Amino acid sequence: MVNLLLFKFTFASLNLITSIGGGYLPTLLSNHLGSFTYANCFSGGVLLGVSMLHMLSEAAEDWIEETSEIDSHSHSYPLEFFVCGFGVLVSLFIAKCLYSETSHNHSHSLHQYEHDNEHDNEHEMSTLTNPNVSKSSSIPYLILIPMIFECFFAGVSLGVERTLKGATTIFIAIVSHIWTESFVLVTASMRCQFDSWRQRKILVLFSISNPLGTLAGILFDQYGFSTTKGTILVRSFCAGLFLYIALVDLIPEEISSRQGNKILKFLSVLTGYSLLAVVALAHG
Predict the structure, then answer these.
(1) Nearest CA to 133 among 122, 148, 123?
(2) Pseudo-torsion of CA 194, 197, 273, 88, nearest 10°?
(3) Angle of the 196-223 helix axis to the 2-23 helix axis, nearest 10
(4) How many Å apart are CA 77 and CA 58, to the nearest integer?
(5) How far apart are alpha carbons 36 and 154 in whole angstroms?
(6) Rounded distance, CA 187 to CA 258, Å?
(7) What does pTM read for this prediction?
(8) Which of 11, 31, 182, 233 could form a disulfide linkage to 19, CB 3.0–4.6 angstroms apart?
């Protein structure tokens, strides 16, 4: 038991380090602005993969397992897909109703930024990193909140595991994609011209959620708390949020922009999605 706890804390620490490391990759890419639009497209593919192949898939599996022993009527209702669709609608309401004006201003600033790049190549990095440019976009927070929940519950699944083999398998599944999620978060923050302090704050909030989830899972296992139904609802809702961000906001805007080659940008999306597909296949 002591050895298993030691391994769990070691795994949680490695997840923390990997997450922070992935969050610093966009900063390195920002020194090569031509690569930054491809990083955004890659992030969109990762979000799509996390939504469809990770969150929604696992929510569906858990819902079938949870209801198969109760009654066939509950099993026949696609609750996980209903909640996922609700997540899409909530994202639509937030982005288009609550933040419609600020989203318009942010979109305008991005187009103006692209136009300026055509005339002054040296102005690229100063515009990208300028802390006085629009910071009102809600997209990084729309990504952050569900990712924190997803990462927290992934940590819970590690914490409640009672075998070393099972804990190792879960750790491999988490560490293989957690860096991509922190990469997405920081990329979205840079894309919205957040200053470095806000970028680090978002990265830290996300990175500590997994170790906290692992600790909570250890406590849940010790005191016999069940988290399956809550995990199903959270994962399904977060899958809807990520679907909206990837397919409505992030990918279309980046591919339609004048920076970079459209084919290469699409291939960047495909690469991000394929990476999560490989992770899901290995996990399965």
Answers:
(1) 123
(2) -60
(3) 160
(4) 16
(5) 29
(6) 18
(7) 0.61
(8) 182
Task: Identify whether the C-beta of residue 206 lies closer than 8 Å to the C-beta of residue 182.
Answer: yes
Q: Pick the closest to residue 49 from 239, 232, 212 (CA basis).
A: 239
Express each pLDDT in 74-114 by its tens digit: 556 788 899 899 988 987 887 777 655 444 444 443 444 44
Q: Using alpha carbons, select from 153, 210, 217 the residue that is nearest to residue 182.
A: 210
Q: At residue 17, what is the residue type?
A: I
Torsion of Cα atoms, 152 then 148 then 277 then 82, to 10°: 100
Comparing 272 with 74, the larger pLDDT belongs to 272
Angle at 204 between CA 180 and CA 228, to 5 degrees: 70
Cα–Cα dist 2/273, whole Å: 38
Torsion of CA 195, 200, 205, 209, to 10 degrees: 140
Helix, strand, coil fractions of the chain, as percent rounded to 5: 85, 0, 15
Cα-based torsion angle of the residue sequence 162, 166, 170, 172 in order, rounded to the nearest 10 degrees: 140
> Which residues, 6+ apart, have CB-to-CB distance to 262 below 8 Å?
255
